[in-house]
Amino acid sequence: MPTTAPSPKLSAAFEQGGTPLSDATASDSALRRFLHGLPGVDAVGLEARAASLGTRSIKTTAKAYAIDLAISMIDLTTLEGADTPGKVRALAAKAVHPDPTDRTTPRTAAVCVYPDMAATAVAALAGSGVKVASVATAFPAGRAALDVKLADVRDAVAAGADEIDMVIDRGAFLSGRYLKVYEEILAVKAQCARADGPDARLKVIFETGELSTYDNIRRASWLGMLAGADFIKTSTGKVATNATPANTLLMLEAVRDFRAQTGVQIGVKPAGGIRTSKDAIKFLVLVNETAGEDWLDNHWFRFGASSLLNDLLMQRQKLSTGRYSGPDYVTVD
């Protein structure tokens, strides 16, 4: 499948002056110099390419494959103050059998909950293969002292969470304190380690709607990857502007270029605002055409969009039966 080549400007920047990646985090000034030395984003070109890729059409067989792939990439999420153990168990059951009438329906990738609900989710999903993700670090605002954030992560990891979704300190980032953000991600990453099992994978959330510019999104992407993120994630889903084709395309370019320079593959998770099968397929086209087939797997690409599952299930049944299901076919959660 065709993919866009790594940026020549970026490759030249790495070749100039030895090994800048190994030196980029040596000091606050070095990190600032590296991040502000990244090529500027052509906003018009970025948005035009995202829009162009969004017009691609796919045939029925490919559409059926894409719908199943999208279902398998969903982090089914409940992050409300009114969450209860019963609601989490019901969500876990839906993750394992999204369509109870059709056991060929793929499972979702994960169930995402607050740390105090992680143990409930772990118990409900035992043996299913569905991961438990937990938001942490004072999600969604991130306004807490570092020791509080790290305790939040430790609680989730101790409860058995497979993945941690952390938020960066946007205030520090926007005021140019990049090393503070970098060191905080490092500290959270250290708390994801386990002595008696696989480490929890770390998703780093930028809240792109608060970063204001595409240049900031590119800088945040590289900052997160340099600090050891396993995934970079657009948003919390709690602000007005969340995942868009353009900001996701920019992050896909970042992970593609990072792997080209380091050999390390990083995942991408757009979250918030993706509600229909048509939307999901547009994002899958972005993945394929930008990063490539290696990312078309739920180990490397996720949707943070719980309501998306319902539309995918309805479209899946339409392809199977030739008609849309009734309104009571899927749950509204």
Kindly report the spatial arrangement of strands forming the biggest sheet.
Answer: 1-2-3-4-5-6-7
Q: Mind summarizing the main beta sheet? A: 7 strands, parallel
Radius of gyration (CA) equals 20 Å
Count of helix runs: 14
Overall shape: it is globular
Q: Order of helices and strands, N to C? A: HHHHHEHEHEHEHHEHEHEHH
Helix and strand composition category:
alpha/beta
pLDDT < 50 runs, ≥5 residues? 15-19
β-strand number:
7
Distance between the termini: 36 Å
Q: For the residues shown, what is the average pLDDT?
A: 91
Percent strand: 5-15%
Provide the helix percentage. Answer: 40-55%
What would a concise description of this structure say?
The protein has 333 residues and is of the alpha/beta class. The chain has helices spanning 8-15, 20-23, 28-36, 43-53, 60-72, 85-96, 118-125, 146-158, 170-174, 178-191, 214-226, 245-262, 277-290, 306-321, and strands at 75-77, 110-113, 131-136, 163-167, 201-205, 231-233, 267-269.
Description of the structure:
The protein has 333 residues and is an alpha/beta fold. It has 14 helices and 7 strands. It has a 7-stranded parallel beta sheet. Helix 12 (245-262) runs parallel beside helix 13 (277-290). 46% of the residues are buried.
